[in-house]
Amino acid sequence: MNASGNKVSAAVVSSTHIETEQEKPPRHTRVIRIEVSPWTIVTLVLVTAGLWVFMRLLPVVLVLVGALMIVGALGPAVEWLEQRGARRATSIAIVFSMLFASTVLIFVLTIPELVSQVRSLIGMEPTLREGLAEWLAKYPLTASLADTMRNVQYDALIKSSAASVLVFFTVVVESVAYGVGAIFLALYMMLDRDRLRGALFAVVPRSHHIRLSRILVNLNTIVGGYIRGQAITCALMFTFMFILLTACGIPNALVIAVFGGLADVLPYIGIFLTMGPAVAAALPFGTIIVMVVLVLMFIYEEFESRVLVPIVYGRSLRLPSSVVLFSLIAGATLFGIIGALLALPVSATILMLIDKLRVELPGETEQAGDTEIRIEDEHSELEYTRRTEGMPAEEASAIAVEMSDIRKKAEG
Q1: Residue 366's Cα: distance from chain center in Å?
Q2: Which of 118, 210, 253, 120 has the alpha carbon at shortest distance from 403?
């Protein structure tokens, strides 16, 4: 009886367990759906198309950037003449005429001498090459290069580099054409300044005009300061090299100094292009002259990078040394020499936009000074709105720039 009862109980439990398993809902596989909104797709397409157009029109963009730099460099001179009663068109004509006349004068005074010294340098090439070979032969590490220097075959080099020379000549012609285009574009931009500025302000809400004008004023300061800084450092490099080479009795000092002054514009490789020709020209005059030129050039390069550059660019660009180094590396990596040349003004512009647009960075909290600037901006915007009520954008833009300029001078 007990055995049969246990069997019945087991059967009931088993049937209950089966019914329970059958009553459990079936397991469903978890499905993750990623939905992309139409606006996101449109944005990605527009960004991709914009980048493609930008890369295709990169030469045109560089011409525009060059024109803006010319405007920034010559703008203060034009404004100085305007403040003394000259009309804007007359001021522009005077500045560009002086620029053209000074350029022609420099070419007239230097080109014949440069041609003469280049011919003399070519005539001295065997002597220079033999001196370099003898200097290399003195040291075990470079002795193997001495025979290579003595046995250079120029015919083979010319034949092998003919295609490269043609490509280089094409690049030079294109660069000159783009440079001339940038000059004329800058001329037209300066002549049509009011209409261009009015068109820009017309597409921006009037409540943002003060902020836009402050950006334009600071951008003009950055560009002008960078161009003037480059001119100053290049002129100082030319002067130093010419005095040094002339004092050491090295011939062809003018052509080497001109080349060094122009090469000083280029970041990274400029130091090699300035020191290399100067040291090579000093080789035939003995070890002492070579060491004097090498050591003094190295000292001046250090002085320029440690003292001159911070003084010249520090006030206008306001970039820390780490940002300068990173900007030069990134610019050279992305766009080569042109990227390195534009790295500093672009970096300064980005930092300026973050400041003037009051972009809230993740790790930064608003300080008391920031609050005061924000309140002052609000007061300026209200004052500008009151003064320009009913005015067309072209006249209103002039008032906005005037207010921003006055405020910048007060802050300075």
Answers
A1: 30
A2: 210
